[in-house]
Automatic annotation (TrEMBL):
Lineage start: Eukaryota, Metazoa, Chordata, Craniata, Vertebrata
Keyword Transmembrane helix included in the entry's annotation: yes
Species the sequence originates in: Caloenas nicobarica
Gene, per the UniProt record: Kcnj3_0
Membrane-spanning intervals of the chain: 76-97, 151-174
Domain of life according to the entry: Eukaryota
Domain Potassium channel inwardly rectifying transmembrane residue range list: 39-179
GO BP terms: potassium ion import across plasma membrane; regulation of monoatomic ion transmembrane transport
Classification via Gene3D superfamilies: 1.10.287.70, G protein-activated inward rectifier potassium channel 1 (2.60.40.1400)
GO function terms (MF aspect): G-protein activated inward rectifier potassium channel activity
Family (UniProt): Belongs to the inward rectifier-type potassium channel (TC 1.A.2.1) family. KCNJ3 subfamily.
Name this protein carries in UniProt: G protein-activated inward rectifier potassium channel 1
UniProt KW Membrane keyword: yes
Region (Disordered): 16-35, 451-492
Length: 492
């Protein structure tokens, strides 16, 4: 036996599976008070990467992005540490050159030309490096032409300083200009609501923009995170399903200058097709909302995220209106942005509503009766087959085609079904179908003529003995009473 330990929410459990295989049972529902979110309300994802092993070297291969993704305190620490180490290293190099040339001992000799004038010790060498690197140049310390090694070190210092400045200052600039803080002025409603809109059960939530600057090409997407188990027994702890918020109609492209209510219509294609008010008490899911757009002032892409758990979805609620028309402008009241009120909403799922509507529909009775009539027609055809086999072979030849009764009854049953279905149509359609010369009346008359002419003609051609056997010109005399009554009802 092998034990599989997994965490679902804040609740841990141990699930045992046999060595020969077998599907994992679905997880227990975590307590409501310990609901673990995948995405926080502020958009932060609660995911931590562990046991990377040797994969940590990948972070160093993209060092610039790694530094940008670090928190501000670590960025400032690396910024100060890098400049301090670089300055101390270059100051030490200038001090070593002065020490090897003996400039420290002859610093006050006016007849001696040192490598760097007025460098007596390490602090003076450090000040010379800072003045050179920062291009301050007080004019008191300078390089002389008698020091080629100093000239080479000066070139190396300029190149290294440019690289360090470009890397660190560029990293700080990118981090400061990130549009993450722009997402702070994009609002999402605290709750989502489910109610009827345009005659359809709809999941709704609200988004808003607090700034006057627009979000260019704003687009919204929704993901449903829900654990499920496949028919093969595979357990998917966070299966992602797409929620359609108007992708096919273009409603997901937002003109976000005022608060908008985003709608997801619950239909047969929706993951919430069988979600009802009762089942929502036991369901566990999370709706992740992603709003993307281009910041108008900087041209950078911004993304704002939030999520709604099953506890934050209100059944039978609707959002308060927040836009009012004032004199010359529209006013948005953000005090009512999160407010909802109750509205009459059926507590059943869309699937249950469709089933109840189907059961109460008057079109079911004709369908049932039509099926019974078809069964009677089949029994009639079987009875005629038995009668046809009992006739003499000569009579079977004279009567012609053996499948004639079958075709005849099939045509008559079709016309009767059509006549029955016409009774369920509205009066206007019945009036149209009852116009003289209708195709159905022609079909009935043609069927009656086909029934009477060949049968009477074929029986009249029989010998007198066979005519007596057939019952005076009618084949129905030898049929069973039940079948004879059924045929008489159909042919009249």
């Amino acid at each position: 036996m092998s034990a599989l330990r997994r965490k679902l929410g804040d609740e841990y459990q141990v699930v045992s599976t046999s060595a020969s295989g077998g599907g994992l049972p679905p997880p227990r529902a975590a307590p409501r008070g310990k609901r673990q979110r995948f995405v926080d309300k502020n958009g932060r994802c609660n995911v931590q990467h562990g046991n990377l092993g040797g994969e940590t070297s990948r972070y160093l291969s993209d060092l610039f992005t790694t530094l940008v993704d670090l928190k501000w305190r670590w960025n400032l620490f690396i910024f100060i540490l890098t400049y301090t180490v670089a300055w101390l290293f270059m100051a030490s190099m200038w001090w070593v050159i002065a020490y090897m040339r003996g400039d420290l001992n002859k610093a006050h000799d006016d007849s001696y030309t040192p490598c760097v004038a007025n460098v007596y010790n390490f602090p003076s060498a450090f000040l010379f490096f800072i003045e050179t690197e920062a291009t301050i140049g007080y004019g008191y310390r300078y390089i002389t032409d008698k020091c080629p090694e100093g000239i080479i070190l000066f070139l190396f210092q300029s190149i290294l300083g440019s690289i360090v400045d470009a890397f660190l200052i560029g990293c700080m600039f990118i981090k400061m200009s990130q549009p993450k803080k722009r997402a702070e002025t994009l609002m999402f409603s605290e709750h989502a609501a489910i109610s009827m809109r345009d005659g359809k059960l709809t999941l709704m939530f609200r988004v808003g923009n607090l700034r006057n600057s627009h979000m260019v090409s704003a687009q919204i997407r929704c993901k449903l995170l829900k654990s499920r188990q496949t028919p093969e027994g595979e357990f998917l702890p966070l299966d992602q399903l797409e929620l359609d918020v108007g992708f096919s109609t273009g409603a997901d492209q937002l003109f976000l200058v005022s608060p908008l209510t985003i709608c997801h219509v619950i239909d047969a294609k929706s993951p919430f097709y069988d979600l009802s008010q009762r089942s929502m008490q036991t369901e566990q899911f999370e709706i992740v909302v992603i709003l993307e757009g281009i910041v108008e002032t900087t041209g950078m892409t911004c993304q704002a995220r939030t999520s709604y758990t099953e506890d934050e979805v209100l059944w039978g609620h609707r959002f308060f209106p927040v836009i009012s028309l004032e004199e010359g402008f529209f006013k948005v009241d953000y005090s009512q942005f999160h407010a909802t009120f109750e509205v009459p909403t059926p507590p059943y799922s869309v699937k249950e509503q469709e089933e109840m509507l189907l059961m109460s529909s008057p079109l079911i009775a004709p369908a049932v009766s039509n099926s019974k009539e078809r069964n009677n027609s089949v029994e009639c055809l079987d009875g005629l087959d038995e009668v046809g086999t009992k006739l003499p072979s000569k009579l079977q030849k004279i009567t012609g085609r053996e499948d004639f009764p079958k075709k005849l009854l099939r045509m008559s049953s079709t016309t009767s079904e059509k006549a029955y279905s016409m009774g369920d149509l509205p009066m206007k359609l019945q009036r149209i179908s009852s116009v003289p010369g209708n195709s159905e009346e022609k079909l009935v008359s043609k069927t009656t003529k086909m029934m009477s002419d060949p049968m009477s003609q074929s029986v009249a051609d029989l010998p007198p003995k066979l005519q007596k056997l057939s019952g005076g010109g009618r084949m129905e005399g030898n049929l069973p009473p039940k079948l004879r009554k059924m045929n008489s009802d159909r042919f009249t």
